[in-house]
Amino acid sequence: MGSVAEFANKQAIAGAFGRAAANYDVVAKLQQQTGEFLMQQVGEHSGKLVLDAGCGTGFFSHRWRQQGKQVIGLDLASGMLAHARKQLAADYYLQADIEHLGLADNSVDICFSNLVVQWCDDLSSALRELYRVTRPGGLILFSTLAKGSLYELKQAWSVVDNYQHINQFLPQQTIKDACQGFRHCLISQVYRQQYSHILPLLGSLKGIGATHLHDGRQQGLMTRGRLIALEQAYPRENEQLPLSYQVVFGVIHRD
Which helix (H) or strand (E) holds 51? Predict the structure, then answer.
């Protein structure tokens, strides 16, 4: 059973994503790029029932349905599920935590989880739970952010103050270790975005609901002076502000 603080953290994360639901797909280009690549990893697998674990607005639930699959859209955030329901994105909807799915053993053919498990307290626990609900012969497809993501922003903040503004992402070796008990394949890719100013860059993070920190709220108000200082400290490339994401894709075979 998780601690009260752990539960509160997850509620805060769910709230942040729920509030972002209406505008999420507009700004969530990274999620769409990684999700499309992750879908391609299914290959010729013929499974019909897909669990979209951390379905968000239902963007990829809808994509799976377009491919003739039946889809369970699962998310921790009620706001996201409500949005997905309005879009008729899935066949079934379930509000639950990836680490405690509330589904029977061997009940789905494919588990799909795009840029979600980095919010889990324990990656190994989340992967075991996804494995548990997948039928033998099925697939678990996941993508996650790894250490090195947002390093430019982290570097800029370190010049401005001593607070921890960037979430701690797992090293790639830790992700690899979490997969060791399964027949699996990992693929690592770097995605880079560029912004002309600091506000749209920060807005892209807020827009995906990713402003919550694992170890507490961001310290200090975002004043105009701090914004200017952050932009001045930010490393530039051709007058642009780069933002990098280190993404790890995993394919786990359910034996």
Answer: strand 49-53
Residue 195 and residue 204: Cα distance in Å, rounded? 10
Torsion of CA 42, 104, 76, 4, to 10 degrees: -130
For residue range 61-70, what is the model confidence (pLDDT) as tens digits? 999 999 999 9
Query: How are beta strands 183-195 and 241-253 bridged, if at all?
Result: antiparallel
pTM equals 0.86
Which tokens is 103 given?
Answer: 């589904």
| Residue of 84, 106, 180, 185 lying closest to 143 (CA atoms) | 185
Return d(Cα 116, Cα 109) in angstroms, integer.
19
pLDDT at 24: 53
Say whether pLDDT at 25 is over 70.
no
**Angle CA 208–210–213, to nearest 5:** 170
The partner residues of 95 in beta bridges, in order of sequence, read 75
pLDDT digit string (tens) for 55-102?
998 999 999 999 999 999 999 989 989 999 999 999 999 999 999 999
In angstroms, the CA 172 to CA 138 distance is 24
CATH classification for the domain delimited by 10-149+168-194+243-254, as one of 3.50.50.60, 3.40.50.150, 3.40.50.300, 1.10.3720.10: 3.40.50.150
Residue 144: exposure state from Cβ atoms within 10 A (0-12, 13-18, ≥19) = buried
pLDDT for residue 224: 87
